[in-house]
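Why does residue order matter? Because the sequence determines the fold. Keep that principle in mind as you read this record.
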Amino acid sequence: ALVSTGKARAAVAKAFCAMSSDTVAASPLQAQTGEWSTDDDVATGPSPSYAHSMSAIDLQAESRANEFKVFAVDYFAQWQDTVTARIASDMKQTDQYRRDVDHYQAKVESLTAQKKRQEEKKKPVKNDLLEKLKRNQEKLEEADIVYENA
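Structure:
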């Protein structure tokens, strides 16, 4: 909006300059309006003229808009990189937690199947197998809690 307003003011100043140049030289309108260089697209002449003031406002508005654009774009790009890195890191960690749960589920299922096969054959289940099953069930419960809280 600031740049658009500056451009509109400059256009009005250009129109005034064009009108004053078509009138008699040294008219009161020309003295107050000033002149506008079509080559450089800026006001020329003494600084208190209307054209000079509008040209300065236009240039200042463009400069401020460009500064803001650079600041905002740089800030948002940095913010996006930071957020993207954090999310990627969190997703990677959560994925690792899920893999841990899957690992212990498979292990517990395998050990449970071994225990079941031994029971079906009416063989005594070895204490090593029972301890291993218990340890892995505990690890599965811990991994489940960690994954659910991630």
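The first strand starts at residue 35 and ends at 37.
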